[in-house]
Amino acid sequence: MQALDRHVDFAVVDRAGAPVPADQSATAMVVDMEFLPAFTHKPKVSAGKVGLPVADGPFAVSIRMMVEGFGHVYVYADAGGRGYTAGDVAGRTLDFVLEAAVSRLDQVTRAESRLGGTGLSSDYHRHVAEARTLLDDARRATAAESRAQLATDALAGALQAGEMLAVERAQQRIAARPPRRAFRFGCNAFGYPKHGEPYARLFADALNFATLPFYRNMVEPAEGKRDYCQAQKILQWTQAAGIAVKGHPLIWENHAGLPSWLRGRSFPQICDAHRDYIADAVGRFRGQIDTWDVINEAHDWANDPRHSLEQLVELTRLACDATRQANPSAVRVVNNCCTWSEYVASAQCSAGALGRPGRSVLGYLRDVLADGVDFEVVGVQMYYPYRDLFEIDRHLDLFCALGKPVHITELGVSSSEAPRKSHIKMPVPRWHGHPWSEAQQADWIEGYYTICYAKEAIEAVTWWDFAEPAWYPHGALVDENLHPKAGYARMKHLVQLWR
Q1: What's the rounded Cα separation, in Å, for the pair 156 and 127?
Q2: Alpha-carbon gap, residue 399 to 240, rounded angstroms
Q3: 420: closest CA among 473, 479, 482?
Q4: CB of 378 within 8 A of CB of 407?
Q5: CA 270, CA 311: separation in Å to the nearest integer?
Q6: Gap between the Cα atoms of 449 and 339, Å rounded
Q7: Rounded to an integer, what distance in angstroms lies between the CA atom of residue 482 and that of residue 465?
Q8: How many other β-carbons are positioned within 10 Å of the β-carbon of residue 269?
Q9: Where are the beta strands (DSSP E) in 307-433?
């Protein structure tokens, strides 16, 4: 999909009819009908208006904005499921919030029809009916302020209804099936042995799957001198506790995972170095660690060396083939982050400008599969993604449709908005408009895990981290003193309920 010379304008206002802040308008993107960026582009932002290029096929538009009455999320306008076309929109100015309300209510209605409408709560039906009435009133409104208020309320109600539909349908599927005894509830176990026996006990009480560290810059900071002691100490504990394990990651070409001595080398030299490391690490732990994140974020995000699209596929093949050679029984996970692929619109990777058009996560995985790369599991990371649970549910289905098992390999939301030093910014978005708290984290955990556990293709969910301080600010399940948070208790309850 490419951009045409034509453009479309959207008026973007808040519930009071005032222009939304520029930092919200600037997130506007042209997306395809899978809601992924269609090409590299920037919106033209002026007071209360966003201009975007028109795509050469059906397209939608997404903007991350504060929807009063719901929260701070990306919302989508897709012409009621049909997608906009150049002929429909060229030269027009559309009311974005009204269009988004129409689109979300249509998405929810179609999803309900596809899944069947029986057994849904009265609250769900009430939200749908109220959103439909508000939307009809907004279409008839002549005053701009009244239309903005009604359209915003309709959108908020449709978003709430969508989340309820996703979770209630998942609960129904779970109730109708036997327990999934093989499902893995995991977390990285990097806090052991530092936090000792209390950490180990709390971990084992709730979880049955641990991720062990194999970051190349930690294991081999100097070329040829490797030290696996951290992973080995964790492995001794997990083996005694009967906890399944995974090694993470074998290849990660982000500055945090790529040793300084490997930077600046040619592609063949980089491949040789990765092949040697995989043979050593996987071969050394064969029979003890049989599941591996063989390559991490190679879809144009963790691409510090600026490999070409073809080289990234070849590097993925190398990771998978070298792991199989070192351990014929290995379960190989191709791991991915930023799965809505906003970086495609800006042509960015984690180290800055990419220097060429980017490729979405789904595009990368489809290319890898089409090229015959052999692996077992699709890995998906998801920290709070500015999306509601209905959109998360729909998005995960895209990965489940690839035909391989799916692991959620990293996951997290905050339990507080208190200031904390971190290399990432404190989370700005608020789910349902409330400040992040232990209760909010616990509620989000319940909704997200319910959706995942109900999908047969998803076989594991791994939280990140277990104890504070966490990589994602306030994202751990227990605090610095190893006191369980409400999120830990909620997760433990779900595990006990489903086992």
Answers
A1: 9
A2: 34
A3: 473
A4: yes
A5: 11
A6: 18
A7: 12
A8: 11
A9: 331-336, 348-349, 352-353, 377-383, 406-412
Please count the residues of the chain. Answer: 499
Cβ(445)–Cβ(392) below 8 Å: no
Count of beta carbons in the 10 Å neighbourhood of residue 307:
18
Among 382, 383, 387, which Cα is nearest to 74's? 387
Give yes or no for a contact between 306 and 354, defined as CB atoms under 8 angstroms apart.
Answer: yes
Q: Which two tokens stand for residue 265?
A: 């080398």
Please write the tens of the pLDDT for every residue from 174-194: 999 999 999 999 999 999 999
| Domain positions in the chain | 3-174, 178-498
pLDDT at 4 over 90: no
Angle, helices 438-453/389-400, rounded to nearest 10 degrees: 30
Report the amino acid identity of residue 471. Answer: W
* Residue 90 · residue 8 · CB < 8 Å: yes
pLDDT digits (tens, 9 = 90+) for 280-289: 999 999 999 9
Q: What is the mean pLDDT of the chain?
A: 95
- Pairing type for strands 93-95 and 3-11 reads parallel
What confidence score (pLDDT) does residue 425 get? 67
Q: CATH fold of 178-498, please?
A: TIM Barrel (3.20.20)
DSSP at 262: G
Q: What is the pLDDT of residues 436-481, one digit of tens each?
A: 999 999 999 999 999 999 999 999 999 999 999 999 999 999 999 9
Residue 157's pLDDT is 97
From residue 400, give the alpha-carbon distance in Å to each of 198, 299, 368, 406, 407: 36, 18, 16, 6, 10
- Residue that is written with structure tokens 């071969």 in the block: 283
Torsions phi, psi of 495, nearest 5?
Answer: -60, -45
* 150/156 Cα distance (integer angstroms): 10
Residue pair 151/104 in contact by the 8 Å Cβ criterion: no
Mean pLDDT of 300-315: 96
Q: Which residues pair with 166 in a beta bridge?
A: none
Residue 404 has pLDDT above 90, yes or no: yes
Task: Compute the distance between CA of residue 87 and CA of residue 100 in angstroms, rounded to an integer.
Answer: 19
- Please choose, from the candidates 90, 5, 94, the residue with its C-alpha nearest in 3D space to the C-alpha of residue 50: 94
